[in-house]
Amino acid sequence: MDIARYKDYMFDVVGAIHEVHKELGAGLNEFCYQEGLAMQFSEDSIIFEREISFHPTYHGKLMNAEFRLDFLCKGDIIVECKAVTDLVTNHRAQLFNYMRLLKKHCGILVNFSPKFATIERYLYDDVNQNILTIDGRIIK
What we know:
140 residues; 30% strand
């Protein structure tokens, strides 16, 4: 897995996140940041889809269960937005499951609530079915 290439691939998306937080600041609700981020992606000509619904499969059959991504950028970067006191294990697990279920290589988890936005970038190695940190460490 070419980690440097994926870092570069996510660079403009991370820049858009910083721009939204810089203008809106801390303390708003998640939906406000999502709207701002959609506007920034458009301004930056970043291809994205918002609020994508999908159904997982079990033994090759679609389940009724439905999940919804905040954003899918460039066809392969899942962006999950939060506005919470702290990111916790469940927030990461949500992103990791989306990456695994959809076989998307890049995931960004952002918390807009703090004074400085918290941005975590992850990679999915579909060959070995591992989630990696942006510096290549395997998440257990």
